[in-house]
Amino acid sequence: MSTNVALESFEEDDVAGAGGEDRPRPTPRASLRWIGLAVVFIVVLELTCRIEDWFRFRTPLFTPITSQSDLMVRDREGIHGRPNARFQKWVMNGLGTRGPEATLAKPPGSVRVVVVGASESFGLSESPGMEFPRQLEDTLGRWLARRCRTTGVQRFEVLNAALPGMSLPTIEQDVRNRIRRFNADVILLYPTPEQYLDEEPPRAAIPDSAADSHALSPTRVLYPRIIARARNEAKTVVPDFVMTWLRRRGTSAYISERPTGWRFTSTPSDRLERYDADLRGFIATVRSLGATPLIATHANVFMRPGAPDPHLLFAWEKFYPRATGPVIIAFDSVARELTLNAARDSAISVVDLAPRLASANTVPFSDFVHFTDSGAAIVASALAPAVLTASGVGESCGIR
Is the same domain home to 117 and 41? Predict the structure, then answer.
């Protein structure tokens, strides 16, 4: 009985305390103090993030450019790089190409090579200055200095006009409308065939001549950078199986909203035909400008020997939910053959990068398709002899 009495007494006291008469309630001033501390904490985190970006990448503290997508602009010529823009390690020059400053007029005694493509060419995971277009320029410079006889060529200049997400029709549009003014000697394409597995096949960008697309709203300087930083940091600590579960869940939810039969379970022939036609159209456009087209086959991590990493496959599938993982791999493989055939039929040079990267001793990919520093170096080394040949100085460099 004494125990029950004690418990009842305790419960009565607890209820009395819960009524608030004996426990002090927070005052409005105290609540404001906690809110103020939270605001200060967030502001300090945001300022720390911006200062780190300035020290690491010289990103201005108050820039309206907050993501890679802001490095692009859509105007009357279509989509292309935003001149003199920078975001973290990605820096655009006055021509709207990634890399060091360049003039519209080709410097005397130089061979100008323009690289076009998507994020694999633009550079995603590599260290600054280690994306393959920059390494290609260095490699060509070493060839010119050590192995080439007198040719009248003083340097090779490589302009990186690629952009994340650029499809083949949009690339052709950019070459036809804007890159034609660069007076390129060689235009090098590294295509991304799996873009043709998107919900709709790629089409050229719709030009926007009505708006001043170069201007970004001044209010964008207030956009918190800490959000993207926190999201990226979270991805590094979440286990692969958890990320895979989240991706599969998201993809399944997306597919469930589509009609039956919407998903590709085999390589769609109409999309392959579209890729082939667009590739041949690109070659024709480059030739019409008086430049020499050069293309390379697309490669992915699943072309390497060994069992494919299921986590990477699901990550790739998330970008193209209309196709299963095996279909994406198969489509890329068939597109490689189409690329080789188009080059042969058009009598132009092609570099088959896929087998070279598949047999590399180092790990050339940082994910399913993007390169590591060493992978970009392999690409640059493989492309250099073809660029020398396409530019007409191959024989002077001992290339036959």
Answer: no
